[in-house]
Design goal:
Blueprint (H helix, E strand, L loop, with lengths): L12 H6 L22 E9 L9 E6 L8 E4 L5 E7 L3 E6 L6 E6 L3 E7 L5 E2 L3 E7 L26 E8 L4 E8 L6 E9 L2 E7 L3 E7 L2 E10 L11 E12 L1
């Protein structure tokens, strides 16, 4: 990392006057007025778990998409996964959050809208643990992929090329994290990627088993990808593969 030094130059009043600088009266700040409100509208919809049923207890929040809006409005999904927020008068974005799931959302928009939101479960693990899970052909990273893994890239036709899972890993400190990925299909190829920073990390791809090591901090993400399923690529959305991820950690 490059250190950045900031130098502050102190100049006396005598020097300023010698240079002919004149004092001026500060300009009166212009008054910033909030955007004109829209006609009241409603956002409603359903929140479901990925490859699951409706999710209750999800916190759904409508946030003004512009400064000086009319405030944040929140509600919870009911037992059927349904939510409704009335009386919105700003362009808004929608956030959905629940413990044990990656957050999701929608926006920005104005006017009555019915949304269908899907939340993916979090598969958190700690270093030196083993996780057994399933990846699907249509598994997707939650939100923007800033890991650097390029998982889930689309081809020239816009077809999703493979399934992706992001697994948060807690290490407890800086050191070397090793991830070992295994599965039982010889004609299926996968990938494992350890994130070391924004758009940075180490990864390997191919047949089982796969092992990769990287220097990480207190926590990181491991990205698992399903890249070829029984010889097929792109991977069919309905394809699934059970895998085992084992992590080991050496602190520094």
């Amino acid at each position: 990392m490059t250190a950045v030094r900031t130098f502050v130059l102190h100049v006396s009043c005598a020097v300023l006057f010698a240079c002919g600088t004149q004092s001026t009266t500060p300009a009166t700040p212009s008054r910033v007025r909030p955007p004109d409100p829209l006609a009241p509208f409603t956002v409603s919809g359903m929140v479901r778990a990925y490859r699951g049923g409706p999710l209750s207890g999800v916190i759904v929040t409508a946030r003004p998409a512009v400064p000086l809006g009319n405030g944040i409005r929140s509600t919870h999904t009911n037992g059927d996964g349904y939510f409704r927020i009335d009386g919105l008068v700003d362009v808004v974005t929608i956030d959905a959050e629940r413990e044990g799931y990656f957050p999701t959302g929608y926006g920005a928009f104005a006017g009555d809208r019915v949304l269908s939101l899907t939340m993916s479960p979090r598969l958190d693990i700690s270093a030196n643990q083993t996780l057994t899970a399933t990846i699907w052909g249509d598994s997707e990273l939650s939100g923007e992929d800033d890991t650097g893994s390029n998982c889930g890239e689309h081809d020239s036709r816009g077809v999703h090329s493979n399934g992706c899972l992001a697994i948060p890993v807690t290490t407890g400190g800086a050191g070397t994290l090793t991830a070992r990925l295994t599965w039982n299909a010889s004609d299926t190829q996968m990938g494992v990627f350890v994130m070391t920073g924004f758009y940075a990390g180490q990864g390997v791809h191919g047949s089982s088993p796969l092992t990769v090591s990287a220097d990480v901090g207190f926590s990181t993400l491991i990205v698992i990808s399903l890249e070829r399923f029984r010889g097929f690529q792109p991977v069919p959305p309905s394809a699934s593969q059970v895998f085992e991820l084992t992590t080991s950690f050496v602190p520094r």
